[in-house]
Amino acid sequence: MAVDKLLRAGIAASKAGDVATAAALFSRVVQADPRSAEGWFWLGKSLPQYERQVYCFRRVLKIDPAHVEARRRLEKLGYLKPEPPKESPPPFSEPVPATISPFSVDPEDVFVQDYHANEEETEGEPVFSVLALFCLAAVVGLFFLQPNLLTDIAVVVIPPTLPPAPTATATATVVPTPTALPFSALEMVEYMPVFEASDCTFAIPTGVQVDCGFVVVPENRYGDANKTIRLAVAIYRGSDSSAVPILYLQGGPGQETVKLMSEYFDWTVAPFLAERDFILLDQRGMGLSEPNLDCPKLDKVFEEDATNKIPFNQREERYLTAFDECRNILTAQGVRLSSYNTMENAADVKDVILALGYQQATLFGVSYGTRLAQVVMRENPEVVYSAVLDSVLPIESKVYNESAAIAQASLDTLFAGCAADPDCQKAYPNLEEDLREVVAQLEAKPLHTKIFGYDEDDYSHSVDGTEFMSTILWAMRSKYAGFYFVSPCECDKRY
């Protein structure tokens, strides 16, 4: 569908009250034409989140600084200061040269997708090899987060261009003096990231030099510079301190790094120290960083759910209640929750690199850490020497929205592969039907079994259809999946 038709359809849906459809249509408009001021404006009107509304209306003003409605929306949202009254210009004045729009550089393009590599050749010792890390990213909590938290607006942005300057004329012309747009809220506060050394709170391997501490940065770089947070770091010193260090970016999002990675030092850190320093960072709100956005109530609900102490029809309510309580507690403590996001994480990475005395670093991202690394490369390429992305999560992906479709596609591939293989087809002529039947049976009557406890006594556990299917999907990720599988037919016989 043409852009103009998409725009008209979106406006019609918006006026009809179908906000979800309108937002989807306007998102397609700005993807097809990132310079569409009206597309961004209507998209901003269709989104409920404050940050995304601000972002969209700012995009409008970058494209069309004279867009009155976008400016009014930003003023209403409290992001722009009301424009001061204009002074009447003198009857005649000399022509005033056109000034560059203050929107030509945007330090906070949250949803920009493209990455422009640093064109300047970087000098330094190349990274000859990087060993694979033992992936420690947490995955269980992924399925309990609210799905709309990571629904990004996927766009490919064309760098803004300035309008051609008007041709000068020899005749006297009345030219009003341009009034600077009151976008002071866009300006980043002045601050200097500072490293504060402290004792390490974990066991240091024999013969290894580690420096621990905190990098102090503002919680909100566009707000009060005096309200700071402390990012926990551990710098494992390598044999060549002059080489470009590696900065590890953990997954999750929300997994701790400093203590966890240090516990598995031989696997995760030691292989790199023969060549360079290795930096561990607890991202804002996590691990040893302060504040830590821990939610004991949510942990308790999760533990109860894992041990089947919460009836299925109460799970959603219990989790939502725990999330609400967590939000209220943290807000009462003065935490600005909207500042704990990937953009601020990316700015933290830059500050950590510089505060520790380095100019650049090699980013090593795992899972969500790969998305963070991509944002750092996009926003602050000057501090990136190179990047290693393990288990890539693209910026434009919507993992919560797409997980069900991905799971179904994996199963469809499995079923089709079995049907095409004579031996598999002979052994499981009705694989899909058998699997669905077993899942339905387990959902109606869970299987009670004993689970071997690594760090505790064996305990009882009930496996329902959902957990059984989840186990199969996770096993499909491994080349040793056959080791974990009990065939649907065999499981049906045993059950």
| Sheet with the most strands: spatial strand order | 1-2-3-5-4-6-7
Shape: globular
Mean pLDDT: 78
Quaternary assembly: single chain
Describe the structure.
This protein is globular. The protein has helices at 3-15, 19-32, 37-46, 50-63, 68-76, 258-263, 265-268, 296-306, 315-332, 342-355, 368-379, 399-420, 422-427, 431-444, 465-475, 481-484, 488-494; strands at residues 194-198, 210-218, 228-236, 246-249, 278-281, 361-366, 384-390, 447-451, 459-463. The longest helix has 22 residues, at 399-420. Among the domains are: 188-390, Rossmann fold; 399-494, no CATH class. The chain has a seven-stranded mixed β-sheet with strand order 1-2-3-5-4-6-7, with helices on one face. Strands 8-9 form a two-stranded antiparallel ribbon. 38% of the residues lie in helices and 11% in strands. It contains 17 helices and nine strands. The chain is of the alpha/beta class. Strand 6, helix 11 (368-379) and strand 7 (384-390) form a beta-alpha-beta unit. The model is unreliable at 89-186 and 482-495 (pLDDT under 50).
